[in-house]
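pasting for the record
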Amino acid sequence: MRLQDKVAVVTGGGGGIGAAICRAFAAEGARVAVTDLRKETAGQVAAEIRAAAGQAEAWPLDVAERVTVERAADEIAARLGPVDIWVNNAGISRVAPFMECTDDLWDTILRINMKGTFIGCQAALRQMLPRQRGVILNMSSQSGKGRQQPIRRLLRQQIRDHRADAIAGAGVRQRRHPRQRVVPGGRLDGAVE
């Protein structure tokens, strides 16, 4: 098992790609902290992992609230051990025609997708830097990859001994949400929470 005795935190782990990452890490021997805004869904994924003889616990987490992220990181380290892997997977995709996009919608997208990644990286590094080891994975959609470039570049410049990269969803197949439709070019369009 490649991740035996490693501690992995996955934000947005209560469903979709995040849940799949949690299950895959647990299958490789990691102790997984399944975090999600909805504790119930994180709890369901953690329970599935434990039922399959894996190790997982659930934490409620709003990735854009620094205090809750830092508290969760400390609790995870106390209960599971120091964090070795942090996956910034939580994100939202809400599509609106450009001229109909409100300030509130725009702020929500930036708050979760950008600020959440920034806070997650800092929380992870607070645990990884003293031990001089760790891996941070920043997930994004293909359209979000460019917006995470500054964070990735900054991490690469300042944290040379750590891996810092962004993974975009271009090659990841997801089930289509019932309110989404495929538009020309194979992209999904529609509001999804």
